[in-house]
Amino acid sequence: MSGDNAGKTAETHVDIWYLPKILKVHVERARFDPPRLRVRQGKPEHVTEATALVVETDGSIPVRAAAAVLFVGDTRLTESERVGKNHYRFYAFKEDQLREGAPIGLGWTGIDHPLETTKFLFNASAHDPGDILRMK
């Protein structure tokens, strides 16, 4: 029967590129004790500290095969963890990669630019952690 919908489910459109908006960003110094094992260019290394950018978003970052990336200018922070509801910590293991005044945005691995841009700029010279980021 042409009008029979038995066995069919309603199709829903899922935007696989969706990312939530970043509401806040702050910088922390992350220390790892014991040292954290990471693999860089196929070689294991133990790290004891990193610069962490903690972002608060207006929703959850979807879990999918590609990981979320925080862009600080051209630098991609690909290692991250969820630290609370709509809070994520992205790690920079080499501080010299983070450039003064670099725009901050959110994207996916495999994409060479942020899909969600923000009003935040990186400010490495600030002494107060609340001032590490400034807004455009």
**Low-confidence spans:** 126-136
| Percentage beta strand | over 45%
User: What is the overall shape?
Assistant: globular
Strand order of the largest sheet: 4-3-7-8-9
**SSE pattern, N- to C-terminal:** EEEEEEEEE
Helix content: under 10%
> What is the first-to-last residue Cα distance?
60 Å
What kind of sheet is the major sheet? 5 strands, antiparallel
Structural class: mainly beta
Q: How many helix segments?
A: 0
**Radius of gyration, CA atoms, in whole angstroms:** 18 Å
> What is the mean predicted local confidence, pLDDT?
84
How many individual β-strands?
A: 9
Describe what you observe in this structure.
This protein has 136 residues and is an all-beta fold. It is 0% helix and 51% strand. Strands 4-3-7-8-9 form a five-stranded antiparallel sheet, with no helix packed on it. A four-stranded antiparallel sheet has the order 1-2-6-5, with no helix packed on it. β3 (68-72) and β4 (75-77) form a beta hairpin. 21% of the residues are buried. Mean pLDDT is 84; it is low at 126-136.
Task: Explain briefly what this protein structure is.
By secondary structure, the protein is mainly β. It has strands spanning 22-40, 43-57, 68-72, 75-77, 79-84, 87-92, 103-108, 116-122, 133-135.
What is the strand and helix layout of this fold?
Layout: E1 22-40, E2 43-57, E3 68-72, E4 75-77, E5 79-84, E6 87-92, E7 103-108, E8 116-122, E9 133-135
